[in-house]
Amino acid sequence: MERAVPHAIPLGQMEVFQALQRLHMTIFSQSVSPCGKFLAAGNNYGQIAIFSLSAALSSEAKEESKKPVVTFQAHDGPVYSMVSTDRHLLSAGDGEVKAWLWAEILKKGCKELWRRQPPYRTSLEVPEINALLLVPKENSLILAGGDCQLHTMDLETGAFTRALRGHTDYIHCLALRERSPEVLSGGEDGAVRLWDLRTAKEVQTIEVYKHEECSRPHNGRWIGCLATDSDWMVCGGGPALTLWHLRSSTPTTIFPMRAPQKHVTFYQDLILSAGQGRCVNQWQLSGELKAQVPGSSPGLLSLSLNQQPAAPECKVLTAAGNSCRVDVFTNLGYRAFSLSF
Amino acid sequence: MSSESSKKRKPKVIRSDGAPAEGKRNRSDTEQEGKYYSEEAEVDLRDPGRDYELYKYTCQELQRLMAEIQDLKSRGGKDVAVEIEDRRIQSCVHFMTLKKLNRLAHIRLKKGRDQTHEAKQKVDAYHLQLQNLLYEVMHLQKEITKCLEFKSKHEEIDLVSLEEFYKEAPPDISKAEVTMGDPHQQTLARLDWELEQRKRLAEKYRECLSNKEKILKEIEVKKEYLSSLQPRLNSIMQASLPVQEYLFMPFDQAHKQYETARHLPPPLYVLFVQATAYGQACAHMKSSQPPRQDKTLSVAIEGSVDEAKALFKPPEDSQDDESDSDAEEEQTTKRRRPTLGVQLDDKRKEMLKRHPLSVMLDLKCKDDSVLHLTFYYLMNLNIMTVKAKVTTATELITPISAGDLLSPDSVLSCLYPGDHGKKTPNPANQYQFDKVGILTLRDYVLDLGHPYLWVQKLGGLHFPKEQPQHTVIADHSLSASHMETTMKLLKTRVQSRLALHKQFASLEHGIVPVTSDCQYLFPAKVVSRLVKWVTIAHEDYMELHFTKDIVEAGLAEDTNLYYMALVERGTAKLQAAVVLNPGYSSIPPVFQLCLNWKGEKTNSNDDNIRAMESEVNVCYKELCGPRPSHQLLTNQLQRLCVLLDVYLETDSHDDSVEGPKEFPQEKMCLRLFRGPSRMKPFKYNHPQGFFSHR
């Protein structure tokens, strides 16, 4: 096995440090701007980089257009989750959620619009926020993470209205059922819990690891990813990636993937998943692996489908994870190029 | 018969016969010329036309007479004979006439010819004359053009301009009223003026020459005086030596060194002056100590001064030397003709020749270890090289893995980023190398010393890229601006290398030598142990399967040093491939990990291994310890042991496996996992002693 050895360039102290930083960078979260032309990515150093998808996808794209338009220090700790509203980019990680105006974000020295911290009970270590979820009907935001609770925040007033308690370990992921105001959450304790937002009560619990079909004790119990579509729910993590029928609480399809999955989403009649390993996996609902498209990172943590109607030319799938690169898939079967921090 | 006789007698007959006949017509002629008769004269008088008539008439008569004779003869008879006789006589007369006419015709012809000839001669004469005249005309024309083309010498003389001439020349030369209108006179006047001026200048030149002569003589006299002064001064100096010694004032020693320094090539001289100045400045700063007793930087010149002097002798001498040595060589090699290879070898040696003098710099560190630097100057390449050697106060036990740390080859590598000292810094050298077939200087650095860029800068040699060689001159300010930083860097380098050397000695025995002032960085109980610390080759490092990222990021250059560490705890074995940059400790060592425990785990399949790498590689600043942070490597290794402890102890227990956990959790942790990538609590909080997430 021969390796391509890059041309030796003299490296000073700063360059070595920067190279090492890039080498150990993890991109945890991505979010597409409301106009569909920009992609925000947050890394483990608390930086958010804004990439211009339209520039990178245009026919005269150069190497520079694959670099961030702007990079700024958003948080002290890693940026675990980001969502975009009509006007704002919301980012969270180290216990705080911050809002940034999309309209001003491209300017240098952009200041956060506001920051909020959910009421935590512990004081020794600030719990992280692993997932953000927008509930458009209520104009609220759900935050979940290290303190094992789901906090709902009214986006109008910025006040925290409810705290949904029930998880026994920290929460990894959230998913919204579109018809009824119900939220699914999955956590380190291995349970997927279904919450009714009107009553703020837990209505259903699926303890995935207890089902023998999908349990994988050597990987642990944790549920790392979650997605839902009408009565169907797909979740994965320590246990195998499994498609569930919610009303009957039964696993219908177990996808044959050994590596733990960190992100899953429904797309048309396919399920896209990513996790440990270089590939973005595409599954038929029946459990067949339709395709595996290799990316450039050794492990993927987030997928983002740009489906903003405002920018049809930027309709791409982006994947990011354990590297400083965001892979861009112009169609589902082909990685076109990588954006890089 | 009759015709013959008549022919012989003809002039007589004519005379006798014609005289009475013609005598009537030519009486005046005959009378004038006396008794001479000239038929030629007669010709002139007769009309050719009438002669022709006469001739025709005579011919007709003859025909008629002949016809009558024939007629008579054919009739025959006796009386016929008389008549025929009569007729015959008549015909004879006619013949006479014909003869006469014939003669006349001949004479006329001859006369005509004579006339023609005469006329032709006249024409010829005229023709000749014409040609002579034409030739003369041509010659004259040539002469005229020659005259027109003639160039006078004065035209080449650069005369003063007209205005200047009228302004400066005295009126008796310029004669404005005459010369204004007449260009010829004007030119003559200007030439006169020129001559005048030149005479004056020549006079001045002579004066200057004599002046010079005078001054030269004066100089000679003064020189003589000065040279007579030298021995006297010397004797005074000699006499003062004991006094100097007595008073601890080694002026003379310094003076001698300066004397030698005069023979240094410019770059070494710059280095010498700057280093001496820097050394003295340092000594003065520590004013509490007696000067020159505890010098951190000492400068000396080595090599033979005579050889250096010989370099400046006229080239003839050196050539002689060369030929002499050549001859000797030939004798020793039994007159073997040098082959092409030998010639190239000689050329290479000549090109890589060092100046016989070199500058020694001894840099003393706090712990009494000394860095000996010897600077050389390659005359033909116009670059400087350095050889380094480190001596320590106490004898070092050299660990096997520390082999390269203090080796002269690598101790100074990359003092400034990218300065490997393997390539020549002078761009012009490449062309010189091409000529003698040297591919790169790399093969010769062991012999010659390393041509680091900072060495050139200390010598005041600045090589801008793509610049011809002749712009490179030794510059004091360049050297001065680099002296301090370089000396500091050199000191740090030696200290960090010695510190590493010490650390390696313990590491090889499986002891991580954490110093007491770094103890707070780690928990008191660390179970994982370092079991192996070996050096590996660059190629081996490149071959490892878990070092790909570092290689691709360009951090695995061949100037770095490579090591392999093995940390063990129970059945878990953690391999760590370490890249040690020559710039340690300002550039941290880089670790790549591979854990063998429940399968092989590297950064590509385990996020926590990746996190451990980033803990030692990226967060190295908190491991530096007290300045100048030479303990970094030790701390990183100890940190790695702690990280392995945390990794193993916090591993989620597999419910399906029977029996107790291999590694019971002993560390105090707030939470086991955190965040989407399920990080383990690797951060150690010092006074409280618990672990948390970063």
TrEMBL record, chain A:
Organism domain of life: Eukaryota
Membrane in keyword set: no
Single biological process term from Gene Ontology: mRNA processing
Main location: nucleus
Pfam families: WD40
Cellular component aspect of the GO annotation: nuclear speck; THO complex; transcription export complex
Residue spans of the WD repeats: 164-205
Subunit field text: Component of the THO subcomplex, which is composed of THOC1, THOC2, THOC3, THOC5, THOC6 and THOC7. The THO subcomplex interacts with DDX39B to form the THO-DDX39B complex which multimerizes into a 28-subunit tetrameric assembly. Component of the transcription/export (TREX) complex at least composed of ALYREF/THOC4, DDX39B, SARNP/CIP29, CHTOP and the THO subcomplex; in the complex interacts with THOC5; together with THOC5 and THOC7, plays a key structural role in the oligomerization of the THO-DDX39B complex. TREX seems to have a dynamic structure involving ATP-dependent remodeling.
Entry function: Component of the THO subcomplex of the TREX complex which is thought to couple mRNA transcription, processing and nuclear export, and which specifically associates with spliced mRNA and not with unspliced pre-mRNA. Plays a key structural role in the oligomerization of the THO-DDX39B complex.
Protein name: WD repeat-containing protein 58
Gene: LOC111156209
From TrEMBL, chain B:
GO cellular component: THO complex part of transcription export complex
Residues that span the membrane, as ranges: none
UniProt superkingdom: Eukaryota
Any GO BP annotation: mRNA export from nucleus
InterPro entries in the record: THO_Thoc5
GO molecular function: mRNA binding
Keyword terms of this UniProt record: Nucleus
Primary subcellular site in the record, as a coarse category: nucleus
Disordered: annotated segments: 1-42, 310-347
Biased composition (Acidic residues): 317-330
Basic and acidic residues composition bias: residue spans: 22-42
Localisation per UniProt entry: Nucleus
Family membership noted in the UniProt record: Belongs to the THOC5 family.
Protein name: THO complex subunit 5 homolog isoform X1
